[in-house]
Amino acid sequence: MNLSTAFFEKAFGTFEQLTVSDLPEFCFSGRSNVGKSSLINKLTNRKSLARVSGKPGKTVTINFYRADDIRIVDLPGYGYAKVPFAERTRWSDLMEGYFKSGRNIKCVFALIDMRHPATDFDISMLDFMQQMDIPYHIVLTKCDKLNKTERKKREEAFLTEIPCFDQITSVWTSTTTFEGISDLKEIFEELSSEDYEFEEEKFEE
Ligand code: GDP
């Protein structure tokens, strides 16, 4: 699978508009400004497939990108205090609608800014996926901004901030040093090949 073939397909503002899930989906979630757009751009080897913004809170749609036989799903950022109540309600309806509509969700990459303690929103998001039995990995972003000692400290802190942190796969990433990018690509490869193997097995029966 070649993520560089990715192109923007469609943005959805309400879950009623969502089209049928006919391909495996790989989602990216996280609070606004966590580095989600930068990471999608880096993985797909593009400068501006997903928008990169210094100003948080802009993405209020679910954006779909198609790459070969999978979809990358850019979920709207959360936790931006200045978003009006109506927008926050729309956000939660959209997210709940998306996750409860029986889609082929291979994995959610739950992005957390490595420099700061996980927020209540981060914990709620992880909790939600746990409850819904959605496979997920934690992605600790902007790790280039910490030195070795600071990293160690944050990693230890996550053990107390995030329930069961040591039992969840976590990948440290940086879009400036490329750290963790190949690890994420491997996860894409591994999980998307599961479907091919399944199809092949069905064919052989
Ligand atoms: P989004 O709101 O989650 O999509 O975040 P963006 O991708 O727009 O990034 C928000 C800001 O963080 C931008 O100024 C990016 O340049 C910066 N940023 C994103 N990822 C990294 C990273 O890995 N390292 C550093 N140093 N900055 C980053």
Short précis:
This protein has 205 residues and is of the alpha/beta class. 36% of the residues lie in helices and 20% in strands.
What does the model show?
This protein is of the alpha/beta class and 205 residues long. It has helices spanning 36-43, 85-99, 120-132, 148-161, 181-204, and strands at 7-12, 25-30, 62-67, 70-74, 105-113, 136-141, 170-172. Helices cover 36% and strands 20% of the residues. The longest helix has 24 residues, at 181-204. It is globular, with a radius of gyration of 17 Å. The model has no long low-confidence stretch (mean pLDDT 89). Guanosine-5'-diphosphate binds at residues 30, 32-38, 52-54, 56, 77, 141-142, 144-145, 174-176.
Q: Give the tally of β-strands.
A: 7
Strand order of the largest sheet: 1-3-4-2-5-6-7
> Radius of gyration in whole Å, from Cα?
17 Å
Content of β-strand: 15-25%
What is the share of helical residues? 25-40%
What does the secondary structure layout of this molecule look like, with pairings?
Blueprint: E1 7-12, E2 25-30, H1 36-43, E3 62-67, E4 70-74, H2 85-99, E5 105-113, H3 120-132, E6 136-141, H4 148-161, E7 170-172, H5 181-204
Parallel strand pairs: 2-4, 2-5, 5-6, 6-7
Antiparallel strand pairs: 1-3, 3-4
The structure holds guanosine-5'-diphosphate (GDP).
